Amino acid sequence: MTEFEDVVTKQWDIVIVGTGMGGATLGYQVAKKGLNVLFIEKGIVHLKNKMTLYDNFAETFLPETNKSYSDLKTIYARSGRWSDYFYVASKNKKKAFIPFVGAGSGGSSALYGAAMERFCPEDFTPESYADDMADSTLPSQWPISYNKLEPYYKKAEELYRIHGSPDPLKRQLLFKYFPPEKMCRSSKKLFDLFIAKGLSPYRLPIAYDKVDGCLGCQGFLCEKRCKNDSSKICLVPAIEKYGAKIIDECEVLKLDGNKETINKLVCIKAGKQFSIQAKQIVLSAGAIMSPLILLNSKNDFWPEGIGNRSGWVGKNLMRHHIDLYALFPKSEDLPGNRKEIAFNDYYFSDEGKLGTVQSFGALPPSDVLVDEMALDIANTFSKSVSSIFSFFKPLTSTILNHLFSKSLILASIKEDLPYAQNRVQLVKKAGMNCLTPELTYHISEYEQKRINKFRKILKNTFKPYRFLLLKQAENIERIAHACGTCRFGEDPATSVLSPQNKVHGTLNLFIVDSSFFPSSGGTNPSLTIAANALRIADHIV
Length: 541
Prior knowledge:
Strand content: 15-25%
Number of helices: 12
Helix content: 25-40%
Radius of gyration: 22 Å
Low-confidence stretches: none
Protein backbone atom coordinates (compact mmCIF):
# COMPACT_ATOMS: atom_id res chain seq x y z
CA MET A 1 0.00 0.00 0.00
CA THR A 2 1.37 3.44 -0.95
CA GLU A 3 1.57 6.29 1.54
CA PHE A 4 -1.27 8.07 -0.27
CA GLU A 5 -3.47 4.95 -0.13
CA ASP A 6 -2.70 4.60 3.57
CA VAL A 7 -3.73 8.21 4.18
CA VAL A 8 -6.94 7.87 2.19
CA THR A 9 -8.09 4.56 3.73
CA LYS A 10 -7.32 5.47 7.35
CA GLN A 11 -10.04 6.79 9.63
CA TRP A 12 -8.66 9.95 11.18
CA ASP A 13 -9.42 11.48 14.57
CA ILE A 14 -9.57 14.89 12.88
CA VAL A 15 -9.36 16.02 9.26
CA ILE A 16 -8.67 19.74 8.83
CA VAL A 17 -9.47 21.45 5.55
CA GLY A 18 -7.02 24.33 5.07
CA THR A 19 -3.68 25.21 6.67
CA GLY A 20 -4.15 28.92 7.27
CA MET A 21 -4.22 30.68 10.62
CA GLY A 22 -7.26 28.79 11.97
CA GLY A 23 -6.67 25.30 10.60
CA ALA A 24 -2.93 25.00 11.23
CA THR A 25 -3.17 26.48 14.74
CA LEU A 26 -5.95 24.11 15.77
CA GLY A 27 -4.24 21.14 14.11
CA TYR A 28 -0.98 21.80 15.92
CA GLN A 29 -2.73 22.05 19.27
CA VAL A 30 -4.74 18.81 18.93
CA ALA A 31 -1.79 16.91 17.42
CA LYS A 32 0.23 17.86 20.53
CA LYS A 33 -2.48 16.21 22.61
CA GLY A 34 -2.05 12.91 20.78
CA LEU A 35 -4.88 12.96 18.22
CA ASN A 36 -4.03 11.75 14.72
CA VAL A 37 -4.49 14.67 12.35
CA LEU A 38 -4.76 14.94 8.58
CA PHE A 39 -4.53 18.31 6.82
CA ILE A 40 -6.01 18.78 3.36
CA GLU A 41 -4.61 21.74 1.45
CA LYS A 42 -5.87 23.01 -1.93
CA GLY A 43 -2.54 24.65 -2.76
CA ILE A 44 1.06 23.48 -2.77
CA VAL A 45 2.97 22.58 0.40
CA HIS A 46 6.10 24.71 0.10
CA LEU A 47 8.10 23.08 2.89
CA LYS A 48 10.53 21.24 0.60
CA ASN A 49 9.20 22.06 -2.85
CA LYS A 50 12.02 23.07 -5.20
CA MET A 51 9.55 24.69 -7.60
CA THR A 52 8.41 27.31 -5.07
CA LEU A 53 8.96 30.94 -6.08
CA TYR A 54 10.30 33.16 -3.29
CA ASP A 55 11.14 36.76 -2.53
CA ASN A 56 8.98 38.62 -5.04
CA PHE A 57 5.41 39.05 -6.18
CA ALA A 58 4.03 36.30 -8.40
CA GLU A 59 3.37 38.78 -11.22
CA THR A 60 7.12 39.47 -11.58
CA PHE A 61 7.68 35.83 -12.62
CA LEU A 62 5.15 35.94 -15.48
CA PRO A 63 6.41 36.15 -19.08
CA GLU A 64 6.47 39.65 -20.55
CA THR A 65 4.18 38.73 -23.43
CA ASN A 66 1.63 36.05 -24.27
CA LYS A 67 0.54 35.65 -20.67
CA SER A 68 -1.85 32.71 -20.78
CA TYR A 69 -4.17 31.60 -17.98
CA SER A 70 -2.15 28.40 -17.77
CA ASP A 71 1.06 30.39 -17.14
CA LEU A 72 -0.69 32.58 -14.59
CA LYS A 73 -2.25 29.62 -12.76
CA THR A 74 1.11 27.82 -12.50
CA ILE A 75 3.06 30.87 -11.35
CA TYR A 76 0.44 31.85 -8.79
CA ALA A 77 0.34 28.32 -7.35
CA ARG A 78 4.13 28.17 -7.07
CA SER A 79 4.05 31.58 -5.32
CA GLY A 80 1.52 30.54 -2.65
CA ARG A 81 -1.31 32.45 -4.31
CA TRP A 82 -4.87 31.48 -5.18
CA SER A 83 -5.00 30.66 -8.88
CA ASP A 84 -8.69 30.10 -9.72
CA TYR A 85 -11.32 32.62 -10.69
CA PHE A 86 -13.88 34.14 -8.38
CA TYR A 87 -16.91 35.94 -9.77
CA VAL A 88 -18.49 39.12 -8.48
CA ALA A 89 -22.02 40.19 -9.38
CA SER A 90 -22.02 43.83 -10.46
CA LYS A 91 -24.63 45.76 -12.49
CA ASN A 92 -26.34 42.58 -13.68
CA LYS A 93 -23.01 41.22 -14.91
CA LYS A 94 -20.58 38.67 -13.55
CA LYS A 95 -16.98 39.84 -13.50
CA ALA A 96 -14.23 37.24 -13.14
CA PHE A 97 -11.14 37.99 -11.09
CA ILE A 98 -8.38 36.14 -9.26
CA PRO A 99 -8.26 37.32 -5.63
CA PHE A 100 -5.07 38.25 -3.83
CA VAL A 101 -5.34 35.55 -1.16
CA GLY A 102 -3.17 32.61 -0.20
CA ALA A 103 -3.38 28.99 -1.32
CA GLY A 104 -0.74 26.59 -0.08
CA SER A 105 0.95 25.79 3.21
CA GLY A 106 0.08 28.61 5.61
CA GLY A 107 -2.83 29.85 3.50
CA SER A 108 -3.08 33.63 3.43
CA SER A 109 -0.81 33.91 6.48
CA ALA A 110 2.11 32.92 4.23
CA LEU A 111 1.52 36.21 2.40
CA TYR A 112 0.35 38.45 5.25
CA GLY A 113 2.20 41.40 6.71
CA ALA A 114 2.30 39.57 10.09
CA ALA A 115 0.32 42.23 11.98
CA MET A 116 -1.42 40.34 14.80
CA GLU A 117 -3.52 42.51 17.07
CA ARG A 118 -6.40 41.84 19.45
CA PHE A 119 -9.89 43.08 18.88
CA CYS A 120 -11.02 45.60 21.52
CA PRO A 121 -13.29 44.39 24.36
CA GLU A 122 -16.05 46.61 22.92
CA ASP A 123 -15.88 44.68 19.62
CA PHE A 124 -17.54 41.79 21.42
CA THR A 125 -20.55 43.97 22.34
CA PRO A 126 -21.45 45.85 19.12
CA GLU A 127 -24.56 47.32 20.77
CA SER A 128 -22.22 49.47 22.87
CA TYR A 129 -21.07 51.50 19.86
CA ALA A 130 -23.63 50.97 17.07
CA ASP A 131 -25.77 53.90 15.96
CA ASP A 132 -27.95 54.09 12.84
CA MET A 133 -27.06 50.80 11.15
CA ALA A 134 -29.80 50.83 8.49
CA ASP A 135 -30.54 47.19 7.61
CA SER A 136 -27.36 45.68 9.04
CA THR A 137 -27.58 42.29 10.80
CA LEU A 138 -25.02 43.38 13.38
CA PRO A 139 -25.80 41.43 16.60
CA SER A 140 -25.98 43.06 20.01
CA GLN A 141 -23.08 40.93 21.21
CA TRP A 142 -20.86 38.00 20.33
CA PRO A 143 -21.82 34.66 21.93
CA ILE A 144 -18.51 34.76 23.82
CA SER A 145 -17.01 37.67 25.73
CA TYR A 146 -13.60 39.29 25.39
CA ASN A 147 -12.69 37.81 28.79
CA LYS A 148 -13.43 34.33 27.46
CA LEU A 149 -10.97 34.82 24.61
CA GLU A 150 -8.33 36.83 26.48
CA PRO A 151 -6.30 33.84 27.82
CA TYR A 152 -6.20 32.46 24.28
CA TYR A 153 -5.09 35.84 22.94
CA LYS A 154 -2.14 35.60 25.33
CA LYS A 155 -1.34 32.04 24.25
CA ALA A 156 -1.50 32.99 20.58
CA GLU A 157 0.77 36.03 21.12
CA GLU A 158 3.31 33.78 22.81
CA LEU A 159 2.99 31.02 20.22
CA TYR A 160 3.50 33.39 17.28
CA ARG A 161 6.29 35.32 19.05
CA ILE A 162 4.88 38.80 18.56
CA HIS A 163 7.10 41.89 18.75
CA GLY A 164 5.63 45.32 19.48
CA SER A 165 4.42 47.61 22.23
CA PRO A 166 1.03 47.86 23.98
CA ASP A 167 -1.60 50.25 22.66
CA PRO A 168 -1.80 53.14 25.19
CA LEU A 169 -5.59 53.17 24.73
CA LYS A 170 -5.78 49.61 26.09
CA ARG A 171 -4.07 50.24 29.42
CA GLN A 172 -6.52 47.97 31.23
CA LEU A 173 -5.32 44.97 29.19
CA LEU A 174 -2.20 42.92 29.82
CA PHE A 175 0.25 42.33 26.99
CA LYS A 176 3.59 40.56 26.92
CA TYR A 177 5.29 41.30 23.62
CA PHE A 178 8.90 40.83 22.59
CA PRO A 179 10.62 44.24 22.20
CA PRO A 180 10.43 45.69 18.67
CA GLU A 181 13.39 46.78 16.59
CA LYS A 182 14.41 50.44 16.50
CA MET A 183 12.23 52.61 14.28
CA CYS A 184 13.69 54.27 11.21
CA ARG A 185 13.97 58.07 11.39
CA SER A 186 11.02 58.69 9.08
CA SER A 187 8.69 56.52 11.16
CA LYS A 188 9.99 58.10 14.37
CA LYS A 189 9.23 61.60 13.08
CA LEU A 190 5.74 60.52 12.11
CA PHE A 191 5.31 58.83 15.49
CA ASP A 192 6.30 62.09 17.25
CA LEU A 193 3.95 64.12 15.03
CA PHE A 194 1.02 61.92 16.05
CA ILE A 195 1.87 62.42 19.73
CA ALA A 196 2.05 66.19 19.19
CA LYS A 197 -1.44 66.04 17.65
CA GLY A 198 -2.77 64.36 20.80
CA LEU A 199 -2.93 60.87 19.32
CA SER A 200 -1.71 57.64 20.94
CA PRO A 201 0.69 55.84 18.58
CA TYR A 202 2.43 52.59 19.48
CA ARG A 203 4.58 49.92 17.86
CA LEU A 204 2.41 47.63 15.74
CA PRO A 205 2.42 44.02 17.04
CA ILE A 206 4.20 41.90 14.40
CA ALA A 207 4.79 38.13 14.36
CA TYR A 208 8.37 37.62 13.22
CA ASP A 209 11.82 36.44 14.25
CA LYS A 210 14.78 38.80 13.86
CA VAL A 211 16.75 37.70 10.81
CA ASP A 212 19.45 39.78 9.10
CA GLY A 213 18.11 41.39 5.96
CA CYS A 214 14.45 40.82 6.88
CA LEU A 215 12.10 43.29 5.21
CA GLY A 216 8.79 41.68 6.13
CA CYS A 217 8.00 40.20 2.70
CA GLN A 218 4.34 41.16 2.63
CA GLY A 219 2.50 39.74 -0.36
CA PHE A 220 4.91 36.95 -1.25
CA LEU A 221 6.75 33.94 0.17
CA CYS A 222 10.07 34.58 1.93
CA GLU A 223 12.91 32.06 1.88
CA LYS A 224 14.51 33.60 4.99
CA ARG A 225 11.48 32.41 6.98
CA CYS A 226 11.61 35.35 9.39
CA LYS A 227 7.84 35.87 9.23
CA ASN A 228 5.92 33.75 11.72
CA ASP A 229 3.07 32.42 9.62
CA SER A 230 0.87 29.44 10.47
CA SER A 231 3.00 27.09 8.36
CA LYS A 232 6.24 27.85 10.17
CA ILE A 233 4.77 28.07 13.67
CA CYS A 234 2.13 25.32 13.60
CA LEU A 235 1.92 23.22 10.44
CA VAL A 236 5.57 22.17 10.28
CA PRO A 237 5.80 21.22 14.00
CA ALA A 238 2.48 19.35 13.78
CA ILE A 239 3.90 17.24 10.95
CA GLU A 240 7.53 16.87 12.03
CA LYS A 241 7.07 16.58 15.82
CA TYR A 242 3.58 15.21 16.33
CA GLY A 243 2.98 12.91 13.37
CA ALA A 244 0.30 14.84 11.49
CA LYS A 245 -0.04 14.13 7.76
CA ILE A 246 -0.94 16.38 4.84
CA ILE A 247 -2.34 16.01 1.32
CA ASP A 248 -1.72 19.02 -0.88
CA GLU A 249 -3.10 20.11 -4.28
CA CYS A 250 -6.34 18.51 -3.15
CA GLU A 251 -9.78 20.14 -3.05
CA VAL A 252 -12.64 19.12 -0.79
CA LEU A 253 -15.79 19.22 -2.90
CA LYS A 254 -18.38 18.28 -0.29
CA LEU A 255 -19.08 16.54 3.00
CA ASP A 256 -21.47 13.70 3.76
CA GLY A 257 -22.84 11.64 6.62
CA ASN A 258 -26.10 11.05 8.40
CA LYS A 259 -28.46 13.46 10.13
CA GLU A 260 -26.03 14.61 12.84
CA THR A 261 -22.66 12.96 12.20
CA ILE A 262 -20.66 14.28 9.24
CA ASN A 263 -17.85 11.78 8.72
CA LYS A 264 -16.93 11.75 5.02
CA LEU A 265 -15.07 14.25 2.84
CA VAL A 266 -15.36 13.91 -0.93
CA CYS A 267 -12.12 15.19 -2.48
CA ILE A 268 -10.48 15.58 -5.88
CA LYS A 269 -6.73 15.45 -6.59
CA ALA A 270 -5.11 15.31 -10.02
CA GLY A 271 -8.54 14.78 -11.57
CA LYS A 272 -9.35 11.73 -9.44
CA GLN A 273 -12.19 11.75 -6.92
CA PHE A 274 -12.00 9.86 -3.62
CA SER A 275 -13.36 9.93 -0.05
CA ILE A 276 -11.73 10.28 3.36
CA GLN A 277 -13.27 9.19 6.67
CA ALA A 278 -12.94 11.22 9.88
CA LYS A 279 -14.36 11.17 13.39
CA GLN A 280 -14.30 14.97 13.47
CA ILE A 281 -14.00 17.48 10.63
CA VAL A 282 -12.74 21.06 10.83
CA LEU A 283 -13.25 23.49 7.97
CA SER A 284 -10.71 26.29 7.69
CA ALA A 285 -10.76 26.95 3.96
CA GLY A 286 -11.47 30.66 4.41
CA ALA A 287 -14.63 32.74 4.66
CA ILE A 288 -15.28 32.37 0.93
CA MET A 289 -14.63 28.64 0.43
CA SER A 290 -15.85 27.12 3.73
CA PRO A 291 -19.48 28.16 3.12
CA LEU A 292 -19.22 26.83 -0.44
CA ILE A 293 -18.31 23.39 0.87
CA LEU A 294 -21.40 23.46 3.12
CA LEU A 295 -23.67 24.70 0.32
CA ASN A 296 -22.41 21.95 -1.99
CA SER A 297 -22.98 19.28 0.67
CA LYS A 298 -26.64 18.46 0.05
CA ASN A 299 -28.28 15.19 1.03
CA ASP A 300 -31.65 13.90 2.26
CA PHE A 301 -31.01 15.28 5.75
CA TRP A 302 -29.64 18.61 4.53
CA PRO A 303 -31.50 19.56 1.31
CA GLU A 304 -30.13 23.15 1.37
CA GLY A 305 -26.60 22.13 2.31
CA ILE A 306 -25.09 21.01 5.61
CA GLY A 307 -25.62 23.60 8.34
CA ASN A 308 -27.98 25.68 6.22
CA ARG A 309 -31.37 25.07 7.83
CA SER A 310 -31.31 28.73 8.88
CA GLY A 311 -30.51 29.87 5.33
CA TRP A 312 -27.60 31.90 6.71
CA VAL A 313 -24.67 29.97 5.18
CA GLY A 314 -22.76 32.34 2.91
CA LYS A 315 -24.58 35.48 4.07
CA ASN A 316 -23.20 38.53 5.95
CA LEU A 317 -19.96 38.72 3.94
CA MET A 318 -17.65 41.38 5.39
CA ARG A 319 -14.21 42.40 4.11
CA HIS A 320 -12.95 45.61 5.84
CA HIS A 321 -12.78 48.94 4.04
CA ILE A 322 -9.07 49.57 3.55
CA ASP A 323 -7.43 52.66 2.03
CA LEU A 324 -3.71 53.29 1.54
CA TYR A 325 -1.93 56.58 2.13
CA ALA A 326 1.51 57.27 0.66
CA LEU A 327 3.11 59.93 2.89
CA PHE A 328 6.19 61.75 1.64
CA PRO A 329 8.66 62.56 4.43
CA LYS A 330 11.71 64.73 3.82
CA SER A 331 14.04 62.11 5.26
CA GLU A 332 15.35 59.41 2.92
CA ASP A 333 15.53 56.91 5.80
CA LEU A 334 12.59 54.64 4.94
CA PRO A 335 11.78 51.29 6.56
CA GLY A 336 11.49 49.20 3.39
CA ASN A 337 8.79 46.60 3.94
CA ARG A 338 8.79 46.60 7.74
CA LYS A 339 5.59 47.57 9.50
CA GLU A 340 6.39 49.87 12.42
CA ILE A 341 3.64 52.05 13.88
CA ALA A 342 -0.13 52.23 14.47
CA PHE A 343 -2.77 54.20 16.36
CA ASN A 344 -6.39 53.52 17.32
CA ASP A 345 -7.69 56.96 18.29
CA TYR A 346 -10.42 56.73 15.64
CA TYR A 347 -11.41 53.17 16.52
CA PHE A 348 -13.94 54.68 18.91
CA SER A 349 -14.30 58.45 18.69
CA ASP A 350 -16.78 61.32 18.74
CA GLU A 351 -17.28 60.61 15.04
CA GLY A 352 -18.42 57.04 15.74
CA LYS A 353 -16.57 53.77 15.31
CA LEU A 354 -14.16 53.77 12.40
CA GLY A 355 -10.99 51.67 12.70
CA THR A 356 -7.23 51.51 12.98
CA VAL A 357 -4.37 53.23 11.15
CA GLN A 358 -1.11 51.33 10.75
CA SER A 359 2.06 50.99 8.70
CA PHE A 360 1.31 48.99 5.58
CA GLY A 361 4.79 48.03 4.41
CA ALA A 362 5.94 48.17 0.81
CA LEU A 363 3.62 48.18 -2.17
CA PRO A 364 4.04 45.75 -5.07
CA PRO A 365 6.51 46.80 -7.78
CA SER A 366 5.27 49.67 -9.96
CA ASP A 367 4.98 47.41 -13.03
CA VAL A 368 2.52 45.21 -11.10
CA LEU A 369 0.50 48.24 -10.01
CA VAL A 370 0.35 49.58 -13.56
CA ASP A 371 -0.82 46.21 -14.88
CA GLU A 372 -3.63 46.27 -12.28
CA MET A 373 -4.56 49.80 -13.33
CA ALA A 374 -4.64 48.72 -16.98
CA LEU A 375 -6.94 45.82 -16.14
CA ASP A 376 -9.31 48.10 -14.18
CA ILE A 377 -9.40 50.59 -17.06
CA ALA A 378 -10.08 47.81 -19.59
CA ASN A 379 -12.99 46.59 -17.48
CA THR A 380 -14.42 50.08 -16.95
CA PHE A 381 -13.77 52.19 -20.05
CA SER A 382 -13.78 51.83 -23.83
CA LYS A 383 -11.06 50.12 -25.86
CA SER A 384 -9.75 53.48 -27.04
CA VAL A 385 -9.18 54.68 -23.46
CA SER A 386 -7.52 51.36 -22.64
CA SER A 387 -5.24 51.68 -25.68
CA ILE A 388 -4.20 55.20 -24.70
CA PHE A 389 -3.33 54.05 -21.19
CA SER A 390 -1.34 51.09 -22.58
CA PHE A 391 0.78 53.56 -24.58
CA PHE A 392 1.64 55.47 -21.40
CA LYS A 393 2.22 52.40 -19.19
CA PRO A 394 6.06 52.65 -19.17
CA LEU A 395 5.93 56.33 -18.19
CA THR A 396 3.29 55.66 -15.53
CA SER A 397 5.40 52.86 -14.08
CA THR A 398 8.45 55.14 -13.88
CA ILE A 399 6.47 57.86 -12.12
CA LEU A 400 4.94 55.46 -9.59
CA ASN A 401 8.31 53.87 -8.88
CA HIS A 402 9.78 57.32 -8.16
CA LEU A 403 6.86 58.31 -5.92
CA PHE A 404 6.55 55.16 -3.83
CA SER A 405 10.28 54.68 -3.36
CA LYS A 406 10.23 57.92 -1.35
CA SER A 407 7.07 57.29 0.66
CA LEU A 408 5.84 55.77 3.89
CA ILE A 409 2.69 53.73 3.26
CA LEU A 410 -0.03 53.74 5.93
CA ALA A 411 -3.29 51.79 5.81
CA SER A 412 -6.62 52.76 7.31
CA ILE A 413 -8.74 49.71 8.19
CA LYS A 414 -12.42 50.43 8.84
CA GLU A 415 -14.96 48.01 10.24
CA ASP A 416 -17.40 46.63 7.66
CA LEU A 417 -20.84 45.82 9.07
CA PRO A 418 -22.70 42.62 8.14
CA TYR A 419 -25.61 42.70 5.69
CA ALA A 420 -27.58 39.61 4.71
CA GLN A 421 -27.58 40.61 1.03
CA ASN A 422 -23.76 40.64 0.96
CA ARG A 423 -23.02 36.99 0.41
CA VAL A 424 -21.10 34.22 -1.32
CA GLN A 425 -22.90 31.67 -3.47
CA LEU A 426 -21.90 28.64 -5.50
CA VAL A 427 -21.45 29.03 -9.26
CA LYS A 428 -23.01 26.05 -11.00
CA LYS A 429 -21.57 25.10 -14.40
CA ALA A 430 -21.91 21.87 -16.33
CA GLY A 431 -18.88 19.62 -15.96
CA MET A 432 -17.33 21.80 -13.24
CA ASN A 433 -15.15 19.72 -10.91
CA CYS A 434 -14.20 22.48 -8.48
CA LEU A 435 -16.01 24.94 -6.22
CA THR A 436 -16.27 28.41 -7.72
CA PRO A 437 -17.69 31.32 -5.69
CA GLU A 438 -19.84 34.19 -6.81
CA LEU A 439 -19.74 37.22 -4.52
CA THR A 440 -22.60 39.67 -4.17
CA TYR A 441 -21.41 42.75 -2.32
CA HIS A 442 -22.74 46.29 -2.09
CA ILE A 443 -21.50 49.16 0.07
CA SER A 444 -24.51 50.73 1.76
CA GLU A 445 -25.03 54.48 1.98
CA TYR A 446 -24.27 54.25 5.70
CA GLU A 447 -20.93 52.51 5.05
CA GLN A 448 -19.96 54.96 2.30
CA LYS A 449 -20.57 57.90 4.63
CA ARG A 450 -18.26 56.31 7.21
CA ILE A 451 -15.58 55.66 4.56
CA ASN A 452 -15.74 59.30 3.50
CA LYS A 453 -15.70 60.47 7.12
CA PHE A 454 -12.54 58.45 7.85
CA ARG A 455 -10.83 59.91 4.77
CA LYS A 456 -11.69 63.46 5.80
CA ILE A 457 -10.37 62.93 9.34
CA LEU A 458 -7.10 61.42 8.12
CA LYS A 459 -6.58 64.21 5.61
CA ASN A 460 -6.25 66.59 8.57
CA THR A 461 -4.35 64.07 10.71
CA PHE A 462 -1.51 63.70 8.19
CA LYS A 463 -0.88 67.43 7.77
CA PRO A 464 1.68 68.90 7.15
CA TYR A 465 2.85 65.81 5.23
CA ARG A 466 2.16 65.65 1.52
CA PHE A 467 0.36 62.42 0.76
CA LEU A 468 -1.36 60.47 -1.98
CA LEU A 469 -4.59 58.62 -1.17
CA LEU A 470 -4.93 55.24 -2.90
CA LYS A 471 -8.63 54.45 -2.63
CA GLN A 472 -9.18 50.73 -2.12
CA ALA A 473 -12.21 50.61 0.15
CA GLU A 474 -14.79 50.36 -2.64
CA ASN A 475 -12.95 47.64 -4.55
CA ILE A 476 -14.70 44.31 -3.87
CA GLU A 477 -11.72 42.42 -5.31
CA ARG A 478 -9.79 43.34 -2.16
CA ILE A 479 -11.07 40.50 0.05
CA ALA A 480 -7.98 39.57 2.10
CA HIS A 481 -9.94 40.17 5.34
CA ALA A 482 -13.15 38.43 4.24
CA CYS A 483 -15.19 37.14 7.18
CA GLY A 484 -18.66 36.48 8.58
CA THR A 485 -20.18 33.99 6.14
CA CYS A 486 -20.84 31.27 8.77
CA ARG A 487 -21.34 33.38 11.90
CA PHE A 488 -21.52 31.80 15.35
CA GLY A 489 -24.31 32.46 17.82
CA GLU A 490 -26.66 30.97 20.38
CA ASP A 491 -29.73 30.87 18.11
CA PRO A 492 -29.65 28.28 15.26
CA ALA A 493 -32.29 30.35 13.45
CA THR A 494 -29.90 33.31 12.99
CA SER A 495 -26.46 31.70 12.95
CA VAL A 496 -24.57 28.77 11.42
CA LEU A 497 -22.27 27.81 14.28
CA SER A 498 -22.65 27.32 18.02
CA PRO A 499 -20.53 29.34 20.48
CA GLN A 500 -18.08 26.40 20.29
CA ASN A 501 -17.85 26.86 16.50
CA LYS A 502 -19.70 23.61 15.85
CA VAL A 503 -22.14 23.63 12.93
CA HIS A 504 -25.67 23.75 14.35
CA GLY A 505 -27.40 20.38 14.04
CA THR A 506 -24.18 18.38 13.79
CA LEU A 507 -22.10 16.59 16.42
CA ASN A 508 -18.63 16.73 14.90
CA LEU A 509 -18.27 19.50 12.28
CA PHE A 510 -16.45 22.74 13.17
CA ILE A 511 -15.34 25.91 11.34
CA VAL A 512 -12.38 27.92 12.66
CA ASP A 513 -11.48 30.42 9.93
CA SER A 514 -12.85 33.97 9.90
CA SER A 515 -16.24 32.70 8.69
CA PHE A 516 -17.37 32.60 12.33
CA PHE A 517 -17.10 36.40 12.94
CA PRO A 518 -20.53 38.00 13.63
CA SER A 519 -18.87 41.41 13.19
CA SER A 520 -15.60 42.31 11.52
CA GLY A 521 -13.93 44.50 14.13
CA GLY A 522 -11.69 47.29 12.90
CA THR A 523 -8.27 45.68 12.77
CA ASN A 524 -6.40 42.69 11.36
CA PRO A 525 -8.25 39.40 12.01
CA SER A 526 -5.28 36.97 12.24
CA LEU A 527 -4.76 37.01 16.01
CA THR A 528 -8.47 36.60 16.75
CA ILE A 529 -8.60 33.63 14.35
CA ALA A 530 -5.57 32.02 16.02
CA ALA A 531 -6.82 32.65 19.56
CA ASN A 532 -10.24 31.21 18.76
CA ALA A 533 -8.63 28.16 17.11
CA LEU A 534 -6.75 27.48 20.36
CA ARG A 535 -10.04 27.80 22.25
CA ILE A 536 -11.82 25.33 19.97
CA ALA A 537 -8.86 22.94 20.09
CA ASP A 538 -9.26 22.77 23.88
CA HIS A 539 -12.99 22.12 23.41
CA ILE A 540 -12.38 19.31 20.90
CA VAL A 541 -9.71 17.63 23.03
